[in-house]
Design brief:
Helices cover 44% and strands 10% of the residues. By secondary structure, it is of the alpha/beta class. Helix 1 packs antiparallel against helix 2. The longest helix is centred in the middle third of the chain and has 20 residues.
Length: 235
């Protein structure tokens, strides 16, 4: 009997109608297969929130100024954001990673200093990241996850914060999937119709300038969203 068959049998033989727990049963099976065990366990779950500033914000693509990135990180560290409530209510540890906020932070027990720079460059005019910055981001992301694993954590969730992030995300979505850019661009944190038109125009100019690289490293370097590890495996 395969592991999957064994897990399905254990789930089905619980005192309940078949399939009564719905998606919880699917999730239990998936976790067992990921951990390759008949008795999966979630240990020391941790959320890593990567924060960094996007240079593209200077082009007027966001409803808020770039300084809000710094203010939001301070809110995370002070325990006042939605992610803080989520973590407290569910027994999750929260660590905030300064991956490139355009400001300096005082030391804090929940803050991990890992700047690749003080924000990215605007990808309207050139690549958002240098090759060296990209390599640093990927290596640091892997290092952080490995260090958590060494403390006994086997569940890691990822979040991110950075004014201009939906512009970068729109570029990545379009380039990775082939979906037309205008179908990937939205109002983000609440742009007006005129502001949305500007955002679409700026991003289209960037796409015309850089095109659609096929190499995942080049995509990251060009459009600059290397805040969490190995995102391209989803492309």
């Amino acid at each position: 009997m395969t592991l999957e068959e064994t897990l399905r049998r254990k789930i089905d033989l619980k005192t309940k109608p078949l399939g009564a727990l719905g998606q919880l049963e699917t999730l239990a099976l998936r976790i067992g297969l990921i951990q390759q065990t008949e008795a999966p366990a979630l240990k020391h779950p941790t959320i890593l929130v990567f924060a960094a500033d996007h240079g593209i914000a200077a082009e007027g693509v966001s409803a808020y100024p770039a300084e809000v990135t710094y203010q939001m990180v301070l809110n995370f560290l002070g325990g006042g954001a939605a992610i803080n409530v989520f973590c407290r209510e569910n027994g999750l540890d929260l660590r905030v990673v300064d991956a490139g906020v355009n400001a300096a932070f005082p030391e804090h027990s929940s803050l991990i200093a890992a700047k690749a720079g003080y924000g990215t460059a605007s990808f309207l005019h050139g690549p958002a990241l240098t090759v060296e910055q990209l390599e640093f981001c990927l290596a640091k992301g892997a290092e952080l996850v490995q260090s958590l694993q060494q403390t006994g954590c086997n569940v890691v969730g990822f979040g991110e914060m950075g004014i201009g992030n939906t512009s970068s995300a729109s570029m990545l979505m379009s380039v990775c999937t082939g979906i037309p850019l205008d179908q990937c661009v939205g109002k983000g944190t609440g742009l007006t119709t005129d502001q949305l038109s500007r955002k679409q125009s700026v991003l289209q100019q960037a796409l015309t300038r850089h095109g659609s690289p096929t190499d995942p490293y080049k995509i990251l370097q060009t459009y600059g969203a290397s805040k969490s590890p190995r995102w391209w495996e989803q492309c």
